Amino acid sequence: MPSVRIEHTEYAGWPNCYRMTNGEVELIATSDVGPRIMHFGFTGGQNFFMQFTEQLGKSGESKWMPRGGHRLWIAPEIKPQTYALDNAPVQATINGNTLTLKQPVEPETFLQKEISVGLTADGQVTVSHRITNTGLKPMRFGPWVLSMMAPDGLALAAFPPRAGHDQALLPTNPLVMWAYTDFTDTRWRFRKRYLLLQQDPSNIYPQKVGLFNENTTCAYLLGRELFIKRATARSNTAYPDFGTSAQLFVNGEFLELETLGPLVDLLPGKSVTHIERWSLHKNIAFQTTNDDDEIDRIMLPLLR
């Protein structure tokens, strides 16, 4: 079984980055801004995360920068709170196979955010997102975790288990629209058990949807490689944006896979944590994405 290494390195013009690898997959996070994870993929292979080249290697900007990669926000989306700056250095700590990145307290919100990444020898990744209220007043929000994916891929989001009308009379989950959501856009594809969204660089118009699934599962197919991220949600609990535990966003530059934690009234001195589990898979070949059984044939063994 290969071992896990975490090493200090330069990356994309930032001198203080950390590369985690088990020899098969690699993850790179910077401590010069953030917390941000900027690279995830098979060792020596493609980066699943979008990067804005002109923003790499820079820091100290006076406005929030998209930059790319994986980040931690708060929901619902409100300016300036959600867009608190993450352009300053963060504290990096290594403990065994885990890298933790902790930012300074945000002056806009008095929140302090940190991301801890654990990598196992078999390539499984656990990403723990923690937000602490250092202020004097409670704050109401839900943790919101966003992975900005590279262009030209296909996103899949799993619906909760389906059943016939004679088996389930009550609704099982919301499907949430934004004012700019347009389901006539051909990038959307609805299946019985999955929602698919294509990233198309030639289509610049934003689209977004939200849904709820106790076993929140999103995936991104980029060529013949598949990135899966999962989170656990709680039924009968208030979630942001009309009750969504997962959201998909797309425009002409990237696609975002987003998971959310429940709304909390976070008291001073208290913290909330939201956990995702990541995995990468090679040689993925759907015969078609028009058939639920074919999608299940690929996805279900990878989720067990």
Overview of this protein structure:
The protein has 304 residues and is mostly beta strands. The protein has one domain (5-303): Beta-galactosidase, Chain A, domain 5. Helix content is 5%, strand content 45%. The protein contains two helices and 21 strands. It has helices at residues 240-243, 292-303; strands at residues 5-11, 14-21, 25-30, 36-42, 69-75, 91-95, 98-102, 111-119, 125-133, 139-149, 154-158, 175-177, 188-190, 194-198, 207-211, 215-222, 225-232, 246-250, 255-260, 264-266, 271-281. Strand 13 (188-190) and strand 14 (194-198) form a beta hairpin. It is globular. The model has no long low-confidence stretch (mean pLDDT 97).
What would you call the quaternary organization?
single chain
The low-pLDDT segments are none
Tell me roughly what share of residues is in helical segments. Answer: under 10%
Order of helices and strands: EEEEEEEEEEEEEEEEEHEEEEH
* CATH level-two architecture: Distorted Sandwich
Radius of gyration: 19 Å
Relative strand content? 35-45%
**How would a textbook summarize the main sheet?**
10 strands, antiparallel
| Number of helices, where a helix is a run of at least 4 consecutive DSSP H or I residues | 2
Number of strands: 21
CATH class: Mainly Beta
Tell me, rounded to a whole number, the average pLDDT: 97
Shape: globular
Category from helices, strands and their pairing: mainly beta
